[in-house]
Amino acid sequence: MDVYNVTADAETFTCNAYLTLGERPVLVDAGAMDGVVEAIRNRTRDLDAVVLTHQHGDHVAQLDAVLDEFDVELYAYADHDRRSVELADGDQVMIGDEAFDVVYTPGHADDHVSLVSEKTLFSGDVVVHDDGAFDYGSFGRTDMAGQSRERLIESIRELLDRMPESVDQMYAGHGGPFEGDVRDVVETALERAEKREPKYPDE
Predict the structure, then answer these.
(1) 33, 74, 88, 131: which has the highest count of C-beta atoms within 10 A?
(2) Res. 57: pLDDT tops 60
(3) Model confidence at 203, in pLDDT bands (50, 70, 90)?
(4) How far apart are CA 51 and CA 83, in angstroms?
(5) Alpha carbon distance 24, 172 (integer Å)
């Protein structure tokens, strides 16, 4: 399965939007970058679905543009006026060449899900490899309205419980991709979150 960050060249704030190519071309999150449709078109003429990890603005600002261009199904946990498939914890979704389990992981967002296969983790914002706050294991911010550090900690623990040992690729909503011992990165993020210290002390 080939995975491309189609918002990698963004000059404004956005999440990473991942185009996965294989048996089933799927976009994981739409991002907030103008020109994301063109970036997708540069890689493929076909798209089968968009799957959202959650609906924060940096993940969905370009969603309508993508849906209008490709006329594909939208998979989302929370209600959305263009949602065609409602995601639930324990569902399975085919992305690229791999079958992914949906793991409900709230805390950073009430509608947050992570997607985990035998080899790959799309972690959204619940856990990232590096994001400017921490390298090698960071976690989604929980200092804004509607967010909860306690729920995030529970979500990371749940993710670890349900993530196969064989996972060696991680694609997060921010920062760079990671290849290697994904479990160790997630465990490091959990340890940092459990300290309950502010992620951004100056904010």
Answers:
(1) 33
(2) yes
(3) low
(4) 10
(5) 20
